[in-house]
Amino acid sequence: MNGLGILQRMGELARGGQTFALATVVWRQGPSSSKQGSRAIITADGELDGWIGGACAEPVVIREAKQVMADGNARLLLLGSPDQFGGAVPEGMTVVPISCQSEGALEIYIEPVLPVPHLVIVGGSPMTRTLAELSGALGWRTDLHSPEDFTAGHAGERSMVVVATQGHGDEDTLERAVAMRPAYLGLVASSKRAEAVLGYLADRGVPKDQLDRVHAPAGLDLGRTTHEEMAVAILAQLVKLRASGDLGEVPAPRQEPRGKPRTGLQLAEAVDPVCGMTVMADAAGMPLEHDGITYYFCCAGCHRAFSENPAAYVRTRSFLT
N or C: which terminal CB in the chain sees fewer CB atoms within 10 Å? Predict the structure, then answer.
């Protein structure tokens, strides 16, 4: 997968609210099998789609991509033998020693693509258009639907839904929205009107636990407000609930802990005792047990060299990171 295929796959993952990372080769030194401009997508479960290099580069990129997704910070990697670069490594780059037989080197930029909140607004009043504009300014994925066009496929468990039909089919629209089980469901109405709508749905057999999740009226209580201010009140409630983590499936904003460095995902790693390359300590590292200790390798060549003469490497290499 490359070119347009990568972009299409990114769109699919983004629309599905999935977290992933994009890795791009920005420089190469032959005879690496990669090319400048090569790209790959790494999903949260470590699957790689695309091409950024061979067996030496891929496990390193997957490991670093998981760290990028965990802490939300992009990073620039320099993959190769340290003596290839000397003291010429720019500040901020991460050098990852690899000792592939090709002796190539790569510079790879890995950036996180984190899911954004999905807001679905149903209605056609000036308030709904203002709310859509404000949420768009926050970078949220926002959809505005008329009551007639609002169907099951328009929202899911990670969505936030605001029903602002204002007397035009409130009951039917809210019943459809309740069935979608969104992370947030709000009804724009007065307290009296909201009570009547929820009572009608209860009489129709809509389960109480689902109706209890409806924010009615939607938004923070700011007293008497204009239509524009009502949009602000609703958005403020969504921001507050999202920041507190009360919306469940909706991705919460990432916050830097005060006075503490950001901590990344801790992954099991090992050092190949033959070449010294850092590898994943899992099945992909071709584990081999010797004298009660499990060793991991970057490639079949290192695995074979160790198995033929383990004593030559156990004495000279430290295998744990």
Answer: C
In a domain, 250, yes or no: no
Strands (E), 164-244: 184-187, 214-215
Strands 94-97 and 75-80 turn out to be parallel
Bridge-based pairing state of the strands 105-113 and 75-80: antiparallel
Compute and round to an integer the Cα radius of gyration of the chain. 26
Residues 232 and 296 in one domain: no
Pick from 94, 113, 132: which residue ends a domain? 113
- pTM value > 0.70: no
Q: Tokens 């997957």 correspond to what residue?
A: 62
| Separation CA 61–CA 76 (nearest Å) | 11
Phi, psi (rounded to 5 degrees) for 81: -75, 135
> Which has the closest alpha carbon to 143: 115, 158, 167, 162?
162
